[in-house]
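Narrative of accomplishments. A recurring question from our advisory board has been how the design workflow behaves on a single, concrete structure rather than in aggregate. To address it, we present the structure tokens for one chain from the evaluation set, followed by the sequence designed for it. No filtering or post-editing was applied between the two.
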């Protein structure tokens, strides 16, 4: 078994015993902490940011919102099967989003990519932006710090965050997405501490059905 299979979502040969307990317990503890409730919400001003895309080009959030509503999705990294599956689901509706005049960007702390990760990134047509030190995720208050035993277990299973995200990196974003209107206000947000719960079709339809019309600024119920 390749050591990263479980972290990448391959449950045919998941780790057992202590490995599984540590990984599952970390998710449960994060959920029980209610840390996700601290994330910024509908009605809040979205933090501005400038991040680089796969080609090293800067992407400015201010420029994006001037063109129309923006969906921002925070992902753990392309090494994670759950994040990759989310990207593919979003790619399936990206053309529809564009027809709505909506821009879509994904944000991840991953800075360095394996050949397999590069291939996964090429499967989507929207930008996957590099968030150095999870700076933007921290501003959206969706970044959480992995306990040392969990980070060490990730490394043992093949996901070395220091190599992929930069030295001494122990932050990962919770699975989350935000819809931002042309005034830079968050009008819809969804933050899930359990990254194993994949974004459903219903979630995606909620986003589509709640895209704010131009020049209208309101928080959704």
């Amino acid at each position: 078994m390749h050591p990263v299979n479980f972290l990448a979502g391959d449950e045919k040969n998941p780790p057992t015993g202590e490995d599984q307990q540590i990984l599952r317990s970390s998710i449960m503890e994060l959920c029980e902490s209610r840390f996700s409730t601290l994330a910024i919400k509908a009605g809040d001003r979205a933090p501005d940011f400038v991040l680089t895309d796969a080609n090293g080009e800067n992407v400015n959030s201010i420029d994006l919102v001037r063109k129309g509503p923006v969906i921002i999705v925070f992902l753990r990294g392309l090494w994670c099967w759950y994040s990759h599956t989310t990207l593919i689901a979003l790619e399936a509706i990206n053309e529809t989003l564009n027809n709505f005049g909506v821009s879509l960007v994904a944000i991840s702390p991953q800075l360095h990519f394996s050949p397999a990760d590069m291939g996964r990134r090429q499967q989507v047509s929207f930008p996957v932006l590099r968030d150095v030190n999870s700076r933007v995720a921290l501003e959206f208050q969706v970044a959480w710090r992995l306990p040392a035993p969990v980070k060490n277990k990730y490394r043992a299973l093949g996901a070395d965050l220091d190599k992929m995200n930069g030295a001494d990196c122990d932050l990962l974003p919770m699975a989350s997405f935000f819809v931002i209107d042309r005034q830079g206000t968050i009008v819809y947000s969804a933050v899930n501490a359990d990254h194993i719960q994949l974004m459903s079709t219903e979630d995606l339809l909620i986003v589509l059905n709640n895209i704010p019309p131009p020049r209208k600024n309101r928080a959704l119920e």
